[in-house]
Amino acid sequence: MIMLKELSQYDNLGTPKFYYELFSKLSNNDQSWTTENVRQHFYNRVIDSVSIFDGCLPLAKAVGAITISDDGLVALNPLFVKTLANEKYLSNKLLEVILTALKDDDVFHEIFCSKNISYDIIYRQIQIENAAFPLRYANFRQLLVSFTFLQPHPDTNIWKLIVNPKFKRLFDKELIPEIKRRKMGISQLEKMLAQKQIYGREAEEFVLKYERKRLVAHKQIQNVEIISDYDVQAGYDIVSYEGVMSEDIDRFIEVKSYSGVPHFHWSRNEMDVSRVKKGQYHLYLVDRAQMNNEDYCPQIIKNPHNTVLEQPAEWEKRVEEYFISKLVG
User: Please, where are the H alpha helices in the chain?
Assistant: First the structure.
């Protein structure tokens, strides 16, 4: 299994252009290549403004792209031969292999943890803090930038990187499940994942379908999406539009599922976001017993900070937990 801690000792982990040339050479059956041949071939070469390639063979070996025998003979994994049609094809495939190999790496999840990831609703991009990459792992950051998995934020005033939209599906499939599992923690996962997590996700997917059906005539319907996987501090689960004429995201939806009498837990952060966004913030209460009913509409509460907290006639509230901090001074 690839380990970023071990790879951190190298200056450079490679670029698509380097790997395309390396793999092309290795695919030539008329010549055998050793690690020394590779070193000599790239000696004093400058590729993508880089002249040191010390970590490239170790990375390629770690992800199974190449094998290196005891006597230093380097062989290309046959699965990569067909990727040599062009550099872009190889780059995308190798990136997929690297990320798949990294999904269980502890250091990777220290970087791509929930506190470092958020969702930009204006640009509709997954973003990560630049500071998420310690200096020790600058080579890994550069690798992801070189493979265009990470890109500069469109707003140059925002010191963050964004996940290239074309890799969002890969990110969702290979990385998000483990990020979410680690976010919850082992003990909490054992208590909640079996039921509550499943209920919550089902309700979010129900509301996503409900919103896209409600806004079917909107020209940017694809922008209605679940963002809770990326931005755990947002205070809402889904971004949407108030109506088909809305040009910008202007409905922020927190989804709560329930059984029996409508009830929900509301976090301090969710309440604060509701207070700030006022009429743009909506609670969608989803009855799990009704979700399979094609005509079912969830209970929608607009501006719940006002209608639930400040006008309490319909709702009973109970404090179940306090945050207590010692006063200093």
Answer: 4-7, 16-26, 35-42, 56-62, 87-102, 106-111, 138-146, 168-170, 176-184, 186-192, 198-214, 268-277, 304
Provide the percentage of residues in the chain whose pLDDT is more than 90: 63
∠145-41-46 over CA atoms, to 5°?
Answer: 40
pLDDT tens digits, one per residue of 280-295: 999 999 999 899 888 9
Length of the chain: 329
Per-residue model confidence (pLDDT) at position 188:
54
All residues at 6 or more sequence positions from 3 whose CB lies less than 8 Å from its CB, including other chains: 62, 105, 107
Terminal-residue alpha carbon distance, the chain: 51
Q: Would you kindly state where each structural domain of the chain is located, as residue ranges?
A: 4-88, 106-181, 188-314
Question: Under CATH, to which class is 4-88 assigned?
Answer: mainly alpha
Strand partners, 75: 67
Instruction: Band the pLDDT of 18: cuts 50, 70, 90.
Output: very high
C-alpha span between 17 and 24 (Å, rounded): 11
Q: Which two tokens stand for residue 103?
A: 């999904």
- Torsion, Cα of 91, 92, 98, 102 (10° steps): 140
Q: Please say if the pLDDT value at position 103 is more than 90.
A: no
At 245, the amino acid letter reads: M
Q: Kindly list the distances between the CA atom of residue 324 and the CA atoms of 240, 309, 321, in Å, as whole numbers in the listed order.
A: 36, 22, 10
Q: What is the pLDDT of residue 173?
A: 86
**Does the pLDDT of residue 146 top 70, yes or no?**
yes
Residue 114 φ then ψ, to 5°: -60, -30
Q: Residue 129 pairs with which residues in a beta bridge?
A: 160
Provide CB contacts within 8 A for 30, sequence distance 6+.
none
Could you tell me which of 169, 173, 197 has the C-alpha nearest to residue 184? 197
- pTM, entire model: 0.70
Q: What pLDDT score does 194 carry? A: 56
DSSP 280-294: GEEEEEEEGGGTT-T
